Structures are given as C-alpha cells and as structure tokens.
C-alpha cells in the first residue's frame, strides 16, 4: 500500500470525503516544486499548530501539536498543492486572524481554547455554507478551512501518536477476522 492509498483509507475510515484539491495534491506530489516561504514562516507555523490543536485537542490521547501536524501541513502544502491552493490557505489564515481580532481584539494564537473554538466553529459554518451554495462552478477554489481540516485529520491519523494512541493499533496483524464485535465507544482501527 502506498501513501496515497493509506490517506484515502484513513478518509474512508473517518467517514469523510476528501476534497478535489487534496486528492489532486496527493496525486501530484512534486518534491522539486518551489517552496512557498510564507508557509514556512514561524507565525504561519504557530497559527497552523493552534488551528490543528483546536480541531484535535489533547485529551486522554495526544493532540495535533504532539503529532506535529503543523509541520505535516506545511510540507504537504509546499510539496503537493498548487500555488493557487497555497494562496487560498494563506489568505484563509489571515481571515482567521481577522475574525479573532474582530470578535476578541486578539490574534488567534493568543485566544483561550474556548475563544478559538468559537472562531473556528463560525468559520466551519461558513465552510459548510460555501460548499452548499447553489451557484457553484467547476474550478471554484476549495474553502481554505476544508483544506486545513483535511490536512489536520490526515496528518494526525497517519502520525505515530494518532495511529497508535487515538486508534486501535496492532503492530503485527494476525489472521483476518471479518466480523469483530463493536462496543459503543471503541476506537477505530489504524490502517
């Protein structure tokens, strides 16, 4: 199984669909693509880490920061996404900070966990409305928060902490058992 198949399987496991821009990124990784240095700026990495940790916070399992999801997002955006999609994400990060400043008079990274949740919940509602709009056209850009959520989930559940602590994990699988009883609250299996 290659990385693309594993990521698609994780998406299926999580019951989510992957956007066209993420799928095209997985199909077209180009390690020789020029780096977008704005993505590598420390301020960008800080806000990405906070967004990812708000989406997957530390609980009884490690959160997105422990899995270094922000680094995964930067690498994926730099190596696999088109310049237009990178710009959509960078502009989206500015919009997140603007929404934070407007509502709480502070940048996103300085907000409390509850305030971060409030900001991202409103942006996620905006993402849902954007995806359900009636005037959609072929080639419209993917909503920036869609890309950020997908990369956060993919980065987390393909990381060691995500695959071994948040999911059930068998390092050396045994025989195939097609019907294993499910108990409410059981973790999903890592792939």
Automatic annotation (TrEMBL):
- Known Pfam families for this protein? Gluconate_2-dh3
> Could you tell me the superkingdom of the organism this chain comes from?
Bacteria
InterPro entries according to UniProt: Gluconate_2DH_su3
Q: What is this protein called?
A: Gluconate 2-dehydrogenase subunit 3
What organism, scientifically named, is this protein from? Answer: Chitinophaga filiformis (Myxococcus filiformis)
